Amino acid sequence: MRPWIMLAPLLLAGCAGSYEAPRLTEKQTVELEKALAGKVPGEKVSCISMRPQNSFRAISGNVLLYRVSGTLIYKNELIGSCPGLARGDTMIVRPFGSQYCRGDIATSADLMTGMTTGSCALGDFTPYRTPGK
């Protein structure tokens, strides 16, 4: 038997680790809390409608906000991380249809150099709404 065949299970086990999202910095935490202040989280959804004039706002390389109105914001925790977003790079999402959905591929890119700086996927969307009075 070849020795490398015996090592194959060990090599595969090393690839099976879980991904842990980077923690938000203090500044990012304050920015997120300010954006969601006074809003209450709802049940996560897998897809949301794309709306003209709306865009994602990166809080970090793995947390995005999508403002629908003054009373509704969706928070998305990316699957993986697009670290360039934390530096102000542009996010490019490739949706499959007329909605943004969990699993849609996103990349971050530095428009000055034209280089891709990260690749990730959208996660579930958590709605944050201002409660009615």
TrEMBL record:
What's this protein's name?
Lipoprotein
Per the UniProt record, the source organism is Sphingobium cloacae
